[in-house]
Amino acid sequence: MRARLAGLTRGRCVMALLVLAGIMWLIASRQWVHVDAAASAVPGVAGTGGERGEGNPLATACAAIAAVGALLLAMLGRVGRWAVSAIVALAGLGCAAAAVQGLAAPAGTPTAWPWAALAVGALTAAGGAAAGIASGAWQRSNRYDRPAEQGPVREDPADDPTTAWDALTRGEDPS
């Protein structure tokens, strides 16, 4: 399985999870249940009309967790990437659970958005798991590391600001 995920680089994984988190956020902000006001009206109480809910707060929170987790994958070491991948996968499962709850709404007719949330939640969970598996092969960035064979860094006395000021005081040009 790890050989199949060898082409899943850090950048591709982060971008895919960010796109999935954005889609999850968009789906979470839509109306998931349509309530018929006449059917749910209590006798003697005026109905408020048509639509209930502007979205699903659990799915919105899961989308935010997935987005932050995707960004953290780009910055952390191996153990941190595994932990964050598990959290992103759990966020995807949380969105899928919210979708199942939206489909089983007792008072109203579910729209198509819970089905879309179920699919995106499952894809995000799979993406988080794939990131955890593939992250073992990602190389650590050593762009800013000093090569070991250089030894300790010796400071040049000319780089010391105190020396430069003393030279100016004596009338010398420190440059």
Automatic annotation (TrEMBL):
Keywords: Membrane, Transmembrane, Transmembrane helix
Membrane spanning residue stretches: 57-76, 83-103, 115-138
Domain of life: Bacteria
Pfam families: Trp_oprn_chp (PF09534)
Region (Disordered) location: 140-175
The keyword Cytoplasm appears for this protein: no
Protein name (record): Trp biosynthesis protein
Species name: Brevibacterium rongguiense
